[in-house]
Amino acid sequence: MHSTSFTSFQSHLDCVIHGVSQSLYTSLAPYKHPRVFQAELTEIVIFSSFTSSFVDRFAAFSSTIEHADGCTGIAKAFATNGVKDGENEHNGTEDLYIAVIGWTDLGAHQRAMETKAFTENVPLIEDSAKDITMYHVKLEIV
After folding, report:
1. How many Å apart are CA 139 and CA 132, to the nearest integer?
2. Could you tell me the superkingdom of the organism this chain comes from (predicted)?
3. pLDDT digits (tens, 9 = 90+) for 50-107
4. Domain 19-137, CATH 3.30.70.100 — does that match?
5. Whole-structure pTM value
């Protein structure tokens, strides 16, 4: 069940988005992680269909990410999804895990991905999550 404000927002959003829209609901709050959300480049990674060992593996890898040159920080949380298809709303039954990582620029992220620490850990993460969706964006907090 959504608030009246959210329902109004969703109806306006539906006017500009064609096809099926998807919303993710998470406890991440930008004001708690300003160095992440105000970074020059923000990487948003959504993990789904993950194994029971995924969260521990990603927690260990998070330290590597945070210590990489050019990383401004990382925020992580579980999320749920809601897909709206016409008038029918379907609540997702699968948990999602969201990582939001701040970078000084795309080059810093690319250099980090080439380090031994990343090349050794990324396959472990990929093996424990079936679906990984990644976006690189410049967030504007309004």
Report:
1. 20
2. Eukaryota
3. 898 999 999 999 999 999 999 999 999 998 876 544 455 544 456 899 999 999 999 9
4. yes
5. 0.80
